[in-house]
Amino acid sequence: MGVDVEAIFAAVPSPYVLLDRDLRIVWANAAYLEVTGRTGNPPIGKIITEEFPAPPDSLSEQMLQSSFQRVLESGRVDHLPLIPYPIDMPDGRREHRYWSATHSPIYDAEGRVEYILQNTNDITRLHQRGQTGSFETSEEGDLIRRAESVAQENLELGTATRFFQTVFDQAPSFIAILSEPDHVFRLVNDSYRQIVGPERDYIGLPVREALPEVEGQGFFEMLDQVYATGEPIALRGAQVFLNVERDAPPTELFIDFVYQPLRGPGGDVIGILVQGHDVTAQKQAERQLREAEERFRTMAQSMPSHVWTAGPDGLLDWVSDQVRAYAGTSDGDLLGEDWVRVLHPDDVARVAPIWTRAVATGETYETEFRLRRRDGTYRWHLTRAVPIHDEAGRVRRWIGSNTDIEDRKATEAALAELNATLEERVESRNRELEEVNATLRQSQKMEAIGNLAGGVAHDFNNLLQAITGSLQLAQRGLEADSPAAQRIDQAMQAVDRGATLAAQLLAFGRRQPLEPRATDLGRLLGEIDPILRSAVGEGIAIETRVASGLWNTLIDSANLENALLNLAVNARDAMEGRGRLCIEVENATLDAAYARAQSDVVPGEYVCLAVTDEGSGMTSEVIDKIFEPFFTTKPEGRGTGLGMAMVYGFVKQSGGHVAIDSRPGRGTTVRIYLPRSLRPEETAPPRVERPVAGGSETILLVEDDVAVRRTARDLLEDLGYGVIEAADADEGLAAIESGRDLDLLLTDVVMPGRLTSRQMAERAQALHPGLPVLFASGYSRDAIVHDGRLDEGIQLLRKPYRREVLAQRLRELLDAPGGAAPAPKAEAPKPAAPPRDPAAACAGLGIVVCEDDTFIRLDLVEMLEAAGAKVREAASGAQALDLLAAAPADLLLVDVGLPDLSGVEVARRAQGRQPGLPVIFATGRDRVDGAETVENAVTLTKPFGQDALLRAVAERCGALAEG
């Protein structure tokens, strides 16, 4: 037969209430509600001390809270024989009552206290009779007095216990109390919990069950021995492995501890006090010190110089093998003061006071003297010693070295002679610095002018485009030989000259979209040789020299041809149409010293194109201005002054360098350095000329310039196309998403609005797969050009364009099988594949850059931080390893040639600390010896631009994710 326990409790006349661990009332019987005056509004769900508050820190509050705490911590029943506790009645009155309460724990399935069942009885009347002495029986009086005494003792005991626990937990050493032969945990302080793991449960568990990982380490056996013999055991620096964190490998700790037996009243051992200190940090420091000393001795023995150490008193206590080999002595010799016997007798009186003074003051010791070699000859040495201090600042040891300077002494006479010309050399150095500063100022000036020129060219091209389209449309209705048609032809010729001028400005401003390919300059020079000879005329003899084994370079061939043609024409004019022009192509390497002197050059491997004439030459003042736009030395009407500016801008945009060597009357040599490419040569596909043809397809025209948009619309409609117009990318996207049929998107690159033209094009191709996209621009900025190069797959129509060019490009895209190649964008995500956008892939990456050249390092840091990477920089291998030891990184970018370690060695050590760390070797060579032994490593050949750098970082980190 089932028993309804809740019904029984509800019916009993004694008050019962059930509390959860937060002391929230979850159930109360009728008797409890009656005695507390809550029959009309049961306080279910309320905190009992909030429903029945007592003054804070009052005796009532302390007694009740202490009882609840004892039940929750011990899991045992707790009694309050007598507790004064007020009750706030529903009508607002506060009644001061006395109670007798019992708090019983209710356990969950895991044996943990889940609820507290309170049985409380109102004994107010009984207590009041005790106050007036009107007990019905003496037993009642004794009962009340005993209850009051027990309540007071419990309160005092609880207070004392909490005080003891507080002191126990705040003890600086770890403490645990074990009882019984199984060593059951009875008490542990906070320090003990921090050592063995704060998340563990210990109390009530035998030590073998609470700390199973300690089995086999000898500690359990020592506990058994102390319990059996009653003799304490103490150890210093004991090694122990503990699972301090869950699901983590054991942690190595070192502790000083004592197992102290605890005896009962009869003298028998009833438990063990465990007390001690964590000395892990000290032991690790000692271990590191030993390792450091061993590394020092290993390093000292491998150094070619003499190395020695001395105590605080200045007496030598160790010398390296190189010292003994030099002096021809054996172990034990030269220690103490014995080293003086290999010192030249004439140097003893001078050197001894210097060493004595250094030992007395603790200052660095440095001097020069002669030491006897094993063959009896003396050689000059520079000796230097530095003091090592302890924490108190006292000298603990001296570390010194002797460096052979015999050769230096032999050249002192020559140095003295050089010192006589010191003023001249200082002046020369000042001139060099001034040249560097002038180069830097010139570079900054050219950059500013370039930005201005690019911006002017952009607006100029838009104006030219509106003029070009309007003129061609106007010409369509005229007879070819009419006066109006001839005037329009003249206007179109002027527009073409303006377009050429704008193109030169863009080239100088480094804003033209290049289409670079790996090119053999020797082959290219052979192809354009007839054009060059035709340009300079018969009076100029052209001599070409192409070095064997010529490297490829990554360039835009058309722009290079224009640059070379400009240089040839300038040379012809400088030689007044008669003379010899030499064009040479060879491999070249620009070192770090040269790069530092130029301020805007990246050291590395280049292909050098040199053009030398026998003309009149130039002064330094002319050379300083030769690359400025509209500057020319030619008579008025003989040149625009943009040829050399275009050459400069193109070379800089290609990642190269231009140098001019010229003197009045000695001719001029212009050297163009273009970065080496390791790719095989690529040939540009020939463009097929087509007749002008229109079509009936529908074209979405997106252009923010009203005049250009109207002109483009008229040209398209004149060719027969249907046109949908939009003033910006936002309007264009609205037209795309409207569902109207589209056959091609023709859009300007640079427009205002929320979206960019690139984003609009990607959205269009997502909604209309295979939709051809043609970008039209006179200034592409970074929307479709990155690192000075037109993005792969982009179709670009350069402004200003003629009707014929527009018609041909449209038919090329519309007639292509399956439409034109889409504008590049990220494909559907694949597991762990690196993003197509290198800058996005680099955002948030932690990268350590190790490069000893300051200018190169600053450039690398700037390029990476611009992409959102978090960069830490180091000038040596040791600094890089220290940074990686302080915090891990996502990638290491390291130069190969460093002042202390090779880049390969730095990478190996870094991966020893952080296995699998991706590595990029930055070098001017095409390969790095030993790089194949480094995991997840790739070589990036200098010079390289931001796009190449970010792509390498993205691919390297993506490759790591795939692995």
Provide keyphrases for this structure.
single chain; 963 residues; alpha/beta; Beta-Lactamase; 5 domains; seven-stranded mixed β-sheet; five-stranded antiparallel β-sheet; 30 helices; 34 strands; 41% helix; 24% strand; phosphoprotein; Sig_transdc_resp-reg_receiver; PAS_4; ATP binding
Give a brief outline of the structure:
The protein has 963 residues and is α/β, with parallel strands linked by helices. 41% of the residues lie in helices and 24% in strands.
Describe the model.
The chain is α/β, with parallel strands linked by helices and 963 residues long. The protein folds into five domains: 5-168, Beta-Lactamase (2-Layer Sandwich); 171-282, Beta-Lactamase; 294-415, PAS domain (Beta-Lactamase); 516-677, Histidine kinase-like ATPase, C-terminal domain (Heat Shock Protein 90, 2-Layer Sandwich), CATH 3.30.565.10; 838-962, Response regulator (Rossmann fold). It contains 30 helices and 34 strands. Strands 16, 17, 18, 19, 20, 21 and 22 form a seven-stranded mixed beta sheet that branches. Strands 2-1-5-4-3 form a five-stranded antiparallel beta sheet, with helices on both faces. Strand 21 (657-662) and strand 22 (668-677) form a beta hairpin. Helix 15 runs antiparallel to helix 16 (483-508) and helix 18 runs antiparallel to helix 21. The longest helix has 55 residues, at 422-476. The chain is flat and about 135 Å long. 31% of the residues are buried. The model is unreliable at 819-835 and 959-963 (pLDDT under 50).
